[in-house]
Write a structure and sequence with these properties.
Blueprint lengths: L1 H42 L23 E2 L2 E2 L5 H13 L2 H4 L1 H21 L9 H7 L17 H6 L14 H19 L2 H10 L1 H11 L11 H18 L19
Antiparallel strand pairs: 1-2
Helix pairs in contact: 2-10, 4-7, 7-8, 8-9, 8-10
């Protein structure tokens, strides 16, 4: 009986010893496994995912819009677009021999530009003398003369001497100053540079009558006589062939490089 008790106690004791030993070894095994896992992670080379570089194309430059004195030409109107196309074609190198006009611009612009600026007149009006006198010169059948084609009475009212001995309409500096004063007076009446250009051609009284009669103050929608109705188109065309000579058939583009800016 005593022997059975001893055997039982021995078995229980052995089980307790084994349990203790197992308990002591378990954390060590766990720790070792954790360390090995950490080493495995450290040894693993992770290749970063790099998104493909997409080269952005430079945005396309919008086509330059035709304008006069920063007032854009409404080319969305098919009639206006067709008319502008026709006048640009008529001002090509073959039709106007623009080398002659470029030479005149190179001579006249250095005098005209600072005077326009001093009087607050848009720079685009420098093309007006090229249209007015650069194409034909001399005195018109109605009596207009000089760089800005002033009528005698208008010239005198703006301080120019016009008599049998002196005609200051043919003095570029003095006539440009007179033209600036006249243009500013027209702007006070019409408040729009395109209408100012048209009124310079046809006269302020006639332009006011047409605006009131037609109840329309948009130059491009007004029904005007042929010369006045084409006048602003001619100015824009002149601006285009002077600024972009090679585009319109000019053969000596170096002459006016200094005047290709706005």
């Amino acid at each position: 009986m005593i022997r059975k008790h001893i055997i039982t106690c021995t078995v229980i004791l052995a089980l307790l010893v084994m349990a203790k030993v197992f308990a002591l070894k378990l954390p060590q095994t766990t720790k070792t496994s954790a360390e090995e896992a950490q080493k495995t992670v450290e040894k693993t080379v992770v290749t970063p995912v790099v998104a493909p570089v997409i080269e952005e194309k430079a945005p396309l430059k919008p086509k330059a819009k035709l304008n006069f004195a920063k007032e854009t030409l409404p080319v969305a109107d098919a009639r206006v677009k067709q008319k502008m196309k026709r006048y640009l074609a008529s001002y090509s190198f073959r039709k106007t021999q623009t080398n002659r006009l470029h030479k005149k611009a190179a001579e006249w612009f250095p005098v005209i530009e600072p005077i326009l600026k001093a009087h607050g007149i848009p720079n685009d009006f420098k093309y007006m003398p090229l249209v007015e006198s650069g194409l034909r010169g001399g005195t018109s059948p109605k009596g207009a003369s000089g760089y800005w084609q002033f009528m005698p009475g208008t010239a005198r009212s703006y301080g120019l001497k016009v008599n049998g001995k002196v005609d200051e309409r043919k003095n570029l500096r003095k006539s440009t100053i007179a033209a600036c004063k006249y243009l500013n007076d027209l702007y006070d009446v019409f408040g729009n540079w395109t209408l100012v250009a048209a009124a310079y051609n046809v006269g302020d009284n006639h332009m006011k009558k047409q605006i009131n009669r037609q109840k329309q103050d948009d130059y491009y929608k007004l029904k005007l006589n042929r010369e006045t109705g084409s006048y602003v188109y001619k100015l824009i065309s002149m601006k285009e062939i002077v600024k972009n000579p090679t585009k319109h058939g000019y053969k000596e583009p170096k002459i006016l490089l200094a005047y290709n800016a706005e």
